[in-house]
Amino acid sequence: MRKIRVLVIFFMTIPLSGIADAEFQVGGYYKNFSTLFNSPVPEAPISGVVVNRLRLNLSYAPTDSLSFAFAYDFTPRVQDPLLFSQSLIAVSTASSSYRVADFDSPIYPSAEDSVGSVGIYHNLDRASLHFSTDFADFSLGRDAIAWGSARVVNPTDVVAPYTYDQLDTEDRVGVDAVRVRIPVGVMGEVDAGYISGTDFDFDKSAVFLRTQLNAAETDFSILLLEFQRDLLIGLDVARGIGGAGFWLETAYVLTEPFDDAPDASDSYLRTSVGLDYSFGGETYAFIEYHFNGAGATKPENYLTNLEQPAYTRGSVYLLGRHYLAPGVTHQVTPLISVSGQMLFNLSDPSAFIAPQIAYNVAEDIHLSLGGFMSIGKRPKDSEAPEFRSEFGSYPNLFFSSFRVYF
Questions:
Q1: In 10 A of CB 104, how many CB atoms?
Q2: Higher confidence at residue 110 or residue 267?
Q3: pLDDT class for 302, splitting at 50, 70, 90?
Q4: How much is the pTM?
Q5: If you ran DSSP here, which 8-state letter would residue 13 be given?
Q6: Domain of 385: which CATH number?
Q7: Torsion sign across C-alpha atoms 1, 4, 229, 210
Q8: Contact 284/251 with Cβ under 8 angstroms?
Q9: Are 27 and 405 within 8 A, CB to CB?
Q10: Alpha-carbon torsion 97, 98, 101, 107, what sign?
Q11: Domain, as residue range, for 231
Q12: How far apart are CA 391 and CA 316, in angstroms?
């Protein structure tokens, strides 16, 4: 187990007594995700994984202006041994790269143990201090940081984003940061901070300045983010149009602009624009278009394009250029809802379709069944498979989810 820096240990060991009117809260959940994968590679066997996640959330507020937060995940997994060393999806994002130091995970098996079907993981996901004054709100430690109003792909969210096929997106992965928020006017805000990489290495860290304001019944947000020596310039616009909601989120990333000889050819633009609407309170629908300037125009170039900075450090995971993402949710009864989403690569063409049915068994007990079904040209050669379409090269995924909150 690696050493946790003194700062994180300090937040974990703050005394939880001594002030009579302090507020102390304990909560959390248990989740089970059972998943089957049907590989797109010809004659490949079906594989599966069962993930159990137990999360403990603690909060302590000795005064109205001071609070502490702590969260710890314990995650045993039973899965195909190959999934411990490789992923069935070609591209993923590094969800916890912005941390000064961390626990070794998995707990089991260790580096010396042989790989079997069982793995036990853990994650210190929150360990933060929050302090409020009349001037600003401050936070220090491990917490969640995310931006963007888009529903499917957030171009400005590069710190700890989720991919489209992520099953558990309830809690954003925590990162180590110092952050200050300054209210401006009635609905405005200036948000600035430093997000640390491993061992406080500045080349692996991020610095951001974000402003938010409301004008003409429209929310505007401008973001400047320097991350791992790249510079992101982002704009987020959200407003109502009639009875519908509208959003435009865009980001232009300059790769290593502060170097002596920057390479402008690696810079890229990403944009998401969409509309959503609620029909009578029982049916909700949205549609979003996404442009990925970092993507390749032809399937045969998808894998070689993964060497670009957008994929190695920019948290981009889609391989093509143009995407359409519609979705709908209908409340069948107060306890049962059905939903469906699709992410469609307009250039291949290929699609990833995600149907789901959810049942609220009791107030804090939820059950759902669903899947991610891929449509598109499949790889031909099982020995050295090559992409003939993006989502046609993804596995079909079927899952059940059981969640209990306490």
A1: 10
A2: 267
A3: very high
A4: 0.89
A5: T
A6: 2.40.160.10
A7: positive
A8: no
A9: yes
A10: negative
A11: 6-405
A12: 15
* CA-based nearest residue to 267, from 281, 257, 280, 279: 257
In a domain, 1, yes or no: no
Q: State how many domains the chain has.
A: 1
Q: Tell me the three state secondary structure of residue 36.
A: strand
**DSSP structure string for 140-195:** EEEE-------SS--TT--SS---TT-S--SSPPPEEEEEEEEEETTTEEEEEEEE
Q: pLDDT tens, 1-15? A: 444 444 443 444 444
Collapsed DSSP state (helix, strand, coil) of residue 204: helix
- Residues 319 and 302: beta-carbon distance below 8 Å: yes
Q: Is 41 helix (H, G, I), strand (E, B) or coil?
A: coil
Handedness of CA 153, 227, 145, 1 (dihedral sign): positive
CA atoms within 13 A on the CB side of 171: 22
Q: Are 1 and 103 in contact (CB under 8 A)?
A: yes
Q: Which residues contact 261 (CB under 8 A, 6 or more apart)?
A: none
Name residues whose C-beta falls within 8 Å of residue 15's C-beta, 6 or more positions apart in sequence. Answer: none
**DSSP state letter for 259:** S
Residue owning tokens 């790769």: 255
Q: In Å, how far from its chain's centre is CA 273?
A: 19
Indicate whether 293 belongs to any domain.
yes
Q: How far apart are CA 27 and CA 256, in angstroms?
A: 43
CA 296/CA 284 separation, integer angstroms = 33
Residue 380: is its pLDDT beyond 80? no
Q: Is 110 part of a structural domain of the chain?
A: yes
Are the CB atoms for 321 and 292 separated by under 8 Å? yes
With beta carbons less than 8 A apart as the criterion, state whether 153 and 176 touch: no
Which pLDDT tens digit goes with each residue over 44-57? Answer: 788 899 999 999 99
Peptide bond into 106 cis (omega under 30): yes
Torsion angles phi and psi, residue 161, rounded to 5: -80, 165
Considering the domain boundaries, does residue 221 fall inside one? yes
Residues 223, 232: Cα–Cα separation, whole Å: 8
Prior bond of 109 cis (ω within 30°): yes
